[in-house]
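User: Structure tokens for this complex, please. No commentary.
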Amino acid sequence: MSADFMVDVRGVHKSFGALTVLDGVDLQVRQGEVTVLLGPSGSGKSTLLRLINHLERADRGFISVGGELMGYRRSGDRLHELKEREILKQRTRIGFVFQNFNLFGHLTVLENVVEAPISAQRRPRGEAEARARELLARVGLEDKVSEYPRRLSGGQQQRVAIARALALEPDVLLFDEPTSALDPELVGEVLAVIRDLAKSGTTMVVVTHELGFAREVADTVVFLDAGRVVEQGPPEAVLDHPQHARTRAFVEKVL
Amino acid sequence: MTSDLGTRSPAPAASPEESLKIVPARHPATWVAAAVVAVLVAMAGHALVTNKAFDWPTFSRFVFQKSILEAVALTLELTLFGVVAGFLLGTVLALMRISRNPLLRAVSWTYTWIFRSVPLILQLLFWYNLAILYNEISFGVPFGPSFVSVGTMSLIPPFLAAGLGLALHQGAYAAEIVRAGFLSVDAGQREAAAALGIPAGRQLRRIVLPQAMRTIVPTAANEIIGLLKATSQVYVMALPELFYQVQVIYTRSGRVIPLLLVATFWYLALTTVLSAGQFFVERRLGRGA
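Assistant:
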């Protein structure tokens, strides 16, 4: 596994029962790069994202993040499966933002953001709270620290979820259709936050259907279909001059 | 009425109905029913006061008597023991039931099946007579040599036998309640906690359980009140809890009704306290909902 890439996916296969979701996928993301995954629903984009932080286990192939193999430890020519505790530790280096936010409903906004730094990274509460307030200010929610998630709009909830993911100071951020569950007029505020992160050089992999956004922030666009990478490259190439019929059909349909 | 159009239409004249008097709909049947109920309530109250057989003087002589107060304390202790041990056991059984290991799942299922099937009173008698079944309990290597042996009678005094009986019974019901609570929490909560790297035990205690409690508490409160009353069945073990104690007093004095009223009074009082407790616990757990 080379450490040249922040995220390095090699020959990954995944099936659920008889259904093959990923059929030999390779994906490399350099530090500071934004990669956007596109594709029709069921093409395996979300599964690929969940494999990267080991929420799902690949049937074949390997994934490393920051040069560290996810889910395994190598000793000599053997790979030992990691225990749950070690996998949890690996995940603290990867931020994950869900389509449905998945904020903890019984905790306030501030408690949501400080939970993982305190319990997973053993940071002192005071320090974690100060950092959380900075992050919440960065996503424009400094006045909502003591609200409960249900009192917030979808866009605000997703911005809290982004702050929560950032609180671990991860090496890479994964976004799983971050705006798909939002009312159209709330999409912009979430995209603005992600755009801002992209400018600051955060390594990101984003699954989205927002082609305009992909064109604007992506360094690389990867088009997946039926569990395979069909085409990848800079957004101008993939979105404006797609080489593949399937990519062309998808881009035309979405636009 | 307002209009967004540029031209302002004149305010419509008050509709002719506005000047008329509104007569509320009558509900004569409700009034008749209320009258009937009021008469019945008055009759019941009258009977309670005037019927000498209720024997209120005897009631008031016994209701705060030392032996009764001690019996109330024992009833409370049994309830507390049964609830705490029962719900701990129930939580373990629920976790076993949703675990990956098929043996753990099977054992949990079988336990619930058996202990929900056997009447509590029968089970209590089993525990009471455990000494007949095993007159010695040994601690040592399974199927191998034993290190210590204790007589069952001395190891399991009546209180513990009764408490265990209640707890084992309660555990079977608690398991299902706790499991329903876990299932009520959206899978995304656990997933988000896992994605954040929050340690497994902490995921359970900090993220899943508090949200499961919202579903668990109302049903659990029912169960706790049920258990409070189920302690009365412990009388078969000759343990002087409330129900046993009033029986002792009325067989001696022959004053059955006032002593049953004493027991009724206390069960009512304790249930009232528990219901109030439920209210406050639910209010606390409702945060963010």
